Amino acid sequence: MHTSLKEGLQFLINNYGAIILSSLIAIGIAVLLRQKGDDRRSGGIPGKLGIPLLGETFSFLASTNSTKGCYDFVRQRRMRHGNWFKTRILGRVHVFVPSVEGAKTIFANDFVLFNKGYLKSMADAVGKKSLLSVPQEIHQRIRGLLSDPFSMNSVSKFIPKFDSELCERLKRLEEEGKSFRVLEFTMKDLTSKERLMQVAFDGICDMLLSITDASTLGQLERDITAVADSMLSFPIMIPGTRYYKGMKARERVMKTFKAMISKRRSREEAPDDFLQSMLQRDLYPPNEKLDDEEILDNLLTLIIAGQSTTAAAIMWCVKFLDDNREVQDRLREEQLSILGNKPAGTLLKYEDLMNMSYASKVVKETLRMSNVLLWYPRVALDNCTIEGYEIKKGWNVNIDATHIHYDPAIYENPMYFKPSRFDEMQKPYSYIPFGSGPRTCLGINMAKVTMLVFLHRLTSGYTWTVDNQDLSLERKAHIPRLQSGCPITLQRLDNRNA
Ligand code: HEM
């Protein structure tokens, strides 16, 4: 045999393993690239669906269970596939929609081309008449009836009450001199009766139902937390499961609400609150009032939707201000000047909040960076395209608010906490912490008022030290929160009006 041919054969025999491996890799890369090209050409979305049903469920659960939080799952896939990607979680295809254009298309077609996905456990938890479960026509009617009690005008009545409660609690926390978790504002060694700082929860219950009694609040909080935890559980009534505990807790909550309604109807009590504004419509025609089931389910929905979101936003605000002293100083300056212009010891009013222009930007920047609700899920009701990408009927499309809020093309140096970036107006759909369209957050005014009053009292009355700088996120939480709960210790500022 010819020597060079012989050498060639010898080379092939000696290296056949490596040759087969590199050929396979080359073929694999070619297939992947072709698939990617085909995906793009045909409007397909890159991403891995994996095997039917399971898909990437385990990876998603692993991220949710880790201290990096469930958004890490999205981050990793985006690095692999690009900004638009699809995945399969628990048997459903999810497309993460990363753009302002995409958000606009979905929000503008809410209820028409897209709707909230129906989860039995969620509907069972919040109730069939909840805003989160009802079809479009009923949703429109309920929102119409709720818009007045949640308007800035109605919410502003609650400012002095909330302010007074907050001043008292901050004062006691400072006097105790102990570290407490901003997330729940509880000190481990205080009894639950003392409920020093469940401000967000207590504030909402006060505004909706005028509940101020510590033991009723404590029981309600435990029960409503159990209901909220059951929203994403497997809907089977087996004692010990999250779903079972949630359903039992829901029964107790409904019993408490019903007892309050009958007390009000028998004229034993008539406080000026949300519930009373609903009951005053008892004699109105059916389309101008909520029926009892609608009142009950929506009371529960409002507390669930409002409490953990506001509490997490307050916690992030404290953390960001601690990390950015120059912002804290500027905010304190503004708040001290507001305090200085009022007679000593007077409570805040709506007009005072109107003068908090820097604080409003601090709130905005906190909501941009913390992304309390990471993405907003919808289900496509028909085949459609968004920005040329094909979406099939039944797929989940998740408006990725987090990606939009961290997009460097929209926000310069997006990782940098800079409230003054809001000196300029934002382009439509580029700032969406409260969503948009027919399902825009109903509690937007209440959330803003709560945060502004809190920031005023905290910065004009105190300085603080964060006692745990660990950035790990709470496991299994769908709202990003620090695992530590952001414990702080307060020091009183020496000023005459505090
Ligand atoms: C910082 C605090 C809050 C944030 C960041 C927030 C965020 C949001 C977002 C993004 C949505 C829309 C979700 C979607 O489109 O899928 C929403 C809906 C909603 N929020 Fe809030 N929220 C907050 C506080 C509150 C408060 C205090 C309440 C009431 C007491 C409330 C009640 C609701 C309700 C009832 C809905 C559903 C509206 C509907 O489907 O028509 N939220 N919230």
UniProtKB/TrEMBL annotation:
Keywords: Heme, Iron, Membrane, Metal-binding, Monooxygenase, Oxidoreductase, Transmembrane, Transmembrane helix. PANTHER family: CYTOCHROME P450, CYTOCHROME P450 26. Belongs to the cytochrome P450 family. It holds the Pfam family p450. GO terms for cellular component: membrane. It comes from Handroanthus impetiginosus. This is Cytochrome P450 CYP4/CYP19/CYP26 subfamily. InterPro entries: Cyt_P450, Cyt_P450_CS, Cyt_P450_E_grp-I, Cyt_P450_sf. It is a single-pass membrane protein.
